[in-house]
Amino acid sequence: MITLELLVLLFAAFIVGLSKGGIAAAATLAVPLVAFFMDPLSAAALLLPIFIVSDAVGVWLYRREWDGWNLKVLIPAGLIGVLVGTLVEPFVPVATFTLATGLIGLGYCMRAWLARSATAHTPRPPSLPRGVFWGILTGLTSFVSHSGAPPYQAFVLPQKLPKMVFAGTTTITFAAINLSKLPAYLSLGLMDADDTGLVAMLCIVAIAGTYAGRRLSQWLSERSYVLVIQVLLFVLSVQLSWTGARALLSGMA
């Protein structure tokens, strides 16, 4: 029987795949959608196998399109962020990470859209200290709710990488981060073997979404691609900020 919950899960799986095909930031909408039916960490754990499977497809699709400097810095830093998340998760409210992630994304979008100078359109060279900082933050927020896109994009988007290189770098970075989350989620008792059949079905939908995302990324112009990513990031960041702030305020009441 098709229920509203199943339809939401199928849609969430498709947008996870869409993001792994190149439409970055879309995947972060998946956990908030599924969180309507369960707590955010359980939602993140249910979706993790779908992320990993679609990551594998995405890595193969973008196996020749990536930026080596960013991968060498962001992947190790992201793994550190996952470790930090594993250690602090029992002590820090999820809402704190949710609010911080949303504010980071909003800050980047406002800076990108309101900048008027000519230098706003020139690439910003990456630096190691900033890369390590944003990479750790990416891994940390990704661990909590698969919402690593805002800090990641705040660092990588200003570099003005070619769209397919940006998409490939994003896919490979998050593939490594997501794979590293599996032992942590297992150690915290978040994975449920009873969900195996459902997860298998969602993985098939996610794979279809990955191929659709790749085609859409190729079809969009460079400028349109960046705008789509920024708009998705803005919408996502508003939602994360609202959810985090509301949860923190209700906890104080």
Automatic annotation (TrEMBL):
UniProt keyword terms in alphabetical order: Cell membrane, Membrane, Transmembrane, Transmembrane helix, Transport
Upper classification of the organism: Bacteria, Pseudomonadati, Pseudomonadota, Alphaproteobacteria, Hyphomicrobiales
Protein name, per record: Probable membrane transporter protein
Domain of life: Bacteria
Principal cellular location given in the protein's record: membrane
InterPro entries: TM_pro_TauE-like, TSUP
Subcellular location: Cell membrane
Membrane topology per record: Multi-pass membrane protein
Keyword Cell wall biogenesis/degradation included in the entry's annotation: no
GO cellular component: plasma membrane
Family statement drawn from the similarity comment of this UniProt entry: Belongs to the 4-toluene sulfonate uptake permease (TSUP) (TC 2.A.102) family.
N-terminal signal peptide: none
Transmembrane segments: 42-62, 69-88, 94-114, 164-184, 196-213, 225-245
